[in-house]
Amino acid sequence: MSSKIAVVTGAGGGIGSAITARLIEDNFHVVALDINSENLKKLESNFSTNITTFNVDLTSAEKIAEVFKSIKAKFGGVDALVNNAGDCFMSEFPNIPAQEFDKQMAVNFSSAFYCSQESVKLMLERPGIKKIVNISSNGAYNFDVFDPPHYRASKAAMDTLTKDLARRYASEGISVNSIAPAMTESPLFKVLSDEILSKAISQMPRGAAMKPDEIAAWVGFLISSAGDVSSGNVIILNQGRDVR
Ligand SMILES: NC(=O)c1ccc[n+]([C@@H]2O[C@H](COP(=O)([O-])OP(=O)(O)OC[C@H]3O[C@@H](n4cnc5c(N)ncnc54)[C@H](O)[C@@H]3O)[C@@H](O)[C@H]2O)c1
Predict the structure, then answer these.
(1) Choosing a second label site near 108 at 20 to 30 A (CA), which of 87, 117, 167, 186?
(2) What percent of the chain has pLDDT over 90?
(3) Total structural domains in the chain?
(4) Which tens digits make up the pLDDT trace of 172-224?
């Protein structure tokens, strides 16, 4: 078994499964967390070694604490965390129900917050430079695209967490960065109407959405030793769409 441990949230999804594949290729043992048990089973059958899965609802801080207790008992620590779990709820302001707002923040932001708290405790005991990569969204910065305000705000909160933790743990060897992709082909596209989807794809300069592997390659780079010197950055991936 690989000795380096990477926790990936939302590991069963489009971008999460590409990140999982990339980190296994890079010789990590991946602890894959997701609420979708079918997708976790697919991951287990795709990778015979170097994967451990936990079926968990990451909107619960208590469940997150339990999972990290098991990770500590089984692996002793964590070297990398990728906060990738997310969803995009599409009600529009000023008619967003309170329950939807709370769920949006819980899935996208609170999950990353509590997984980071638990991981940092386990990272401080590990040698070398440890990594947290937060999967944000270009939607937090581009106000011409469709993203609803609670989705944007959840990702902006995540990017502020990135900067806070980067500063807080700079001298303790934990590097924290965000990757903020624009349109990336994944099952999440199902939340969009055909009209919104085709408009958003036509706004991409290369006329096509990006691929999960392309995002995973940047995660792999940040987690590799080449990424050691980067911390506190929000890296926007959008084929140059928003350059003016
Ligand atoms: N696809 C895009 O165009 C795009 C663009 C910008 C940012 N992102 C971000 O990328 C990340 C990955 O999204 P994706 O496109 O792969 O979508 P996806 O729907 O394929 O994957 C999301 C994963 O998160 C999991 N998840 C959702 N709620 C959960 C919960 N409560 N507990 C545990 N797991 C949960 C889902 O089961 C799923 O496996 C998300 O944070 C998303 O906001 C995606």
Answers:
(1) 167
(2) 98
(3) 1
(4) 999 999 999 999 999 999 999 999 999 999 999 999 999 999 999 999 999 99
Pocket lining: 203 vs ligand 1, CB cutoff 6 Å: no
192 inside domain: no
Cα–Cα distances (Å) from 56 to 21, 29, 40, 181, 215, in that order, read 20, 18, 11, 25, 24
Average pLDDT, the chain: 97
The answer to whether position 76 is within a domain reads yes
Q: What's the CA gap between 202 and 85, in Å, rounded?
A: 26
Ligand 1 closest atom vs CA 184:
3
Residue 21 belongs to some domain of the structure: yes
**Where residue 145 sits, what CATH number does that domain have?**
3.40.50.720
94 found inside a domain: yes
pLDDT band at 46 (very low <50, low <70, confident <90, very high): very high
| Beta carbon of 153 within 6 Å of any ligand 1 atom | no
* Domain residue limits at 30: 4-183+212-234
With a 6 Å cutoff on the Cβ, whether 84 touches ligand 1 is yes
- Tell me the CA–centroid distance for residue 108 and ligand 1, in Å: 8
